[in-house]
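Lab notebook, design round three. We kept the backbone fixed and only want residue identities now. Task for the bench partner: fill in a sequence for the structure below.
Input structure tokens:
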């Protein structure tokens, strides 16, 4: 089995869309193996978004992910689960995301795009280590 990290960002929690998002994964036969509603602190956010630290939008990323609780989860499935999740998420900009994807059906703003999913197997391992260090 393969695992990836998914974050239902603060806008998804605020809009009451977490159940809808989780049910989409479950209908795809993906399993939630860890999940927590968490008020993200700046230190964890900085570790998660470290590759963006020098980019002009970094401060906005940190401000957004820490503004209210997020649901952080580890999703498990067959090989390349990260890729399955990314396809289900849709394009980063909801206006460009295909109908049937999470962002295409539910997203509104580019800056508040509901969901994060690891972008590779390596990123998944790194991110799971940040958010769920005890998960073996």
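Proposed sequence:
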């Amino acid at each position: 089995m393969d695992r990836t990290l998914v974050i239902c960002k603060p806008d998804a929690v605020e809009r009451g869309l977490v159940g809808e998002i989780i049910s989409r994964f479950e209908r795809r036969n993906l399993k939630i193996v860890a999940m927590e509603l968490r008020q993200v602190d700046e230190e964890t956010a900085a570790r998660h978004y470290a590759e963006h630290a020098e980019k002009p939008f970094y401060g906005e990323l940190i401000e957004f992910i820490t503004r209210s609780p997020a649901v952080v989860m580890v999703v498990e499935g067959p090989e390349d689960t990260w890729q399955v999740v990314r396809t289900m998420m849709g394009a980063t900009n909801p206006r460009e995301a295909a109908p049937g994807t999470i962002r295409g059906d539910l997203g509104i703003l580019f800056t508040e795009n509901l969901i994060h999913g690891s972008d590779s197997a390596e990123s998944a391992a790194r991110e799971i280590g940040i958010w769920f260090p005890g998960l073996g």
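Keep this in mind before ordering anything: Residues 4 and 124 are 5 Å apart (CA to CA).
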